[in-house]
Amino acid sequence: MLSKEQQLNLSESILNCIDKAISPKFGENVYNVIIANFETRFTLSKNEIASHPLLFETLLDDIFGTGIASELIKSSIFRELAHNFQIFEPDYFQKNMDKENVLSRAIEEIIKKAQ
After folding, report:
1. Relative to the CA of 10, which of 30, 48, 78, 87 has its CA 20 to 30 Å away?
2. Which pTM does this prediction carry?
């Protein structure tokens, strides 16, 4: 079981990966819109994304639709998570993107392996 400090550090690492995946490629405004929507729609802090990955992934689909825009953002986030946590094969997302909730399952896997 992770301590509160370890949970916070893990959440911050996941959030940093999300920021690195979105801001440089899609713009800081896109990142800010996603975070603002998460916080207002679910009345949760951005630091709680790691605790609610399915809500986060659903939000991406709600904002960008279930087409290519959402998939590009999810793929970018996944690549950053895979690079940072080094627990996925590089082509894991592409092989599994047709499956539901691949991004939220990846975040859950990161948390599970950290415990």
Report:
1. 30
2. 0.89
